[in-house]
Specification:
The protein is globular and about 65 Å long. Helices cover 81% and strands 0% of the residues. The protein has one domain. By secondary structure, the protein is mainly α. It contains twelve helices and no strands. Helix 3 crosses helix 4 and helix 10 packs antiparallel against helix 12. The chain starts with 9 loop residues before the first helix and ends with a helix.
Length: 273
């Protein structure tokens, strides 16, 4: 067991994590989730933008020549029934404004979605990253991972359900200045925090230890994940830095494990005296 005076201080967590991250092994590992997430995000945004601008183009065609479009097209039917709306949607000014807003707002959502997607993808690499951090810094701290795959899948479904509920409840606040920033980010931070901490803690702690540490150190952990979330909002950092985020939390949970287990040993020793 690692002695309490060997536990790294909170101030050293970031510097040690950076030192680990800027090694050939971890830098090379960062490219996999980066390119996978980037590819999926580009495909998603391309498809979404295509659907959006197809709608505007149909509206423009209907406003110019109602008989020139496919009668079976549902968008065309809608545009024919509401000619004033189709004229507005098909105008150059509206398309320019809508296109700008789409890429500004859509780009913001794309960043948030890509961050969560990257968190999911990095989950497949978490066991390797945690094992490497343990080998480098905490060889005397035992890993007690005991989360069955079925329980983890149930946890994922539950968290995504809560995320969707949180997301829809926050939608009305999107139209209130300042509050909209909080409303937009709160559901995504919730999912970012729960997925990352569960992935990393589940590789180091047993079920009972997780309960105790999430209760005793919840604010320390939340502060760390909040800082990491803010970093993830920087374009590219959110998907390129996922390995770094797992390294940081690996250090933190190994330290929390050492604190908890040392306290248990000291408590047992006190009872024997």
């Amino acid at each position: 067991m690692q002695k309490s005076d060997e536990i790294y201080s909170e101030g050293a967590l970031l510097s040690r994590s950076l030192a680990d991250f800027f090694t050939t092994k971890f830098l090379a590992l960062s490219t996999a989730p980066f390119f996978i997430t980037l590819l999926i995000s580009i495909i998603f945004l391309y498809y979404l933008s295509g659907e959006f601008f197809d709608m505007l183009n149909v509206a423009a065609q209907v406003s110019q020549n109602p008989d020139a479009v496919d009668a079976q097209n549902e968008l065309a039917q809608f545009a024919k029934e509401y000619p004033i709306i189709s004229a507005i949607l098909g105008s150059f000014i509206f398309k320019a404004i809508a296109g700008t807003l789409f890429y500004l707002i859509g780009g913001g959502f794309a960043v948030l979605v890509s961050v969560i997607l990257a968190v999911i993808i990095i989950g497949f690499f978490t066991p390797y990253i945690v094992a490497e951090v343990q080998k480098r810094h905490y060889p005397n701290i035992e890993r007690r991972a005991t989360v069955p795959i079925f329980d983890y899948l149930v946890f994922l479904l539950k968290q995504f359900g809560l995320f969707l509920l949180f997301f829809f409840v926050s939608l009305p606040f999107y139209f209130i200045p300042v509050l909209n920033i909080v409303a937009m980010n709160a559901p995504f931070y919730f999912l970012f925090h729960t997925l990352l901490t569960k992935d990393v803690a589940g590789e180091i702690l047993d079920t009972q230890e997780q309960k105790e540490i999430f209760k005793k150190a919840k604010w320390r952990i939340a502060t760390t994940t909040f800082i990491l979330y803010l970093l993830s909002l920087i374009p590219a950092v959110g998907i390129l830095g996922q390995v770094f985020f797992v390294i940081v939390l690996s250090h933190q949970f190994f330290q929390e494990a050492a604190r908890l287990r040392n306290a248990q040993i000291e408590g047992a020793a006190a009872l024997e005296r």
